[in-house]
Amino acid sequence: MTGTRIDGSRDGDRLLITLRGSLDAMSVDALQSQLFDLTRVHDLIGISAPVRQIHIDVAGVDFCDAAGLRMLVAARRVAESRQATCHLHDPQPHLRWLLRATRAADLFDGV
């Protein structure tokens, strides 16, 4: 997963996830596992409200292929299963084009 990173932080019922690097077949399995762990860990802590908003900052994503797009859609499904909203923030033009071309942009608030 060279050059690809995922970071997360919690603020109340909002989970902020920051993705950097390439979302591709080489990185997506590890990223998807980390994404699941981030949402699950925050639920298991149990000291605050459940996650109701998932905000994914994709400004640092420099490449995204079909596998990366599937991961973003899976994140949206995770949010939906938790009765949460899912927002993508600051997609680069290439990612915005991919989301719109595949109509996946309709799944996310803010695209």
Plain-language structure description:
The chain is of the alpha/beta class and 111 residues long. It has a single domain (5-107), classed as STAS domain (Transcription Regulator spoIIAA, 2-Layer Sandwich), CATH 3.30.750. The chain is built from 3 helices and 4 strands; from the N terminus they run ββαβαβα. The chain has helices at residues 28-45, 66-81, 93-101, and strands at 5-11, 14-23, 53-64, 85-89. The chain has a 4-stranded mixed beta sheet with strand order 1-2-3-4. A hairpin with a 2-residue loop joins β1 (5-11) and β2. The longest helix has 18 residues, at 28-45. It is globular, with a radius of gyration of 13 Å. It starts with a strand and ends in a 10-residue tail after the last helix. The model has no long low-confidence stretch (mean pLDDT 84).
Descriptive labels:
Transcription Regulator spoIIAA, 31% strand, MlaB-like_STAS, STAS_dom_sf, alpha/beta, 111 residues, four-stranded mixed beta sheet
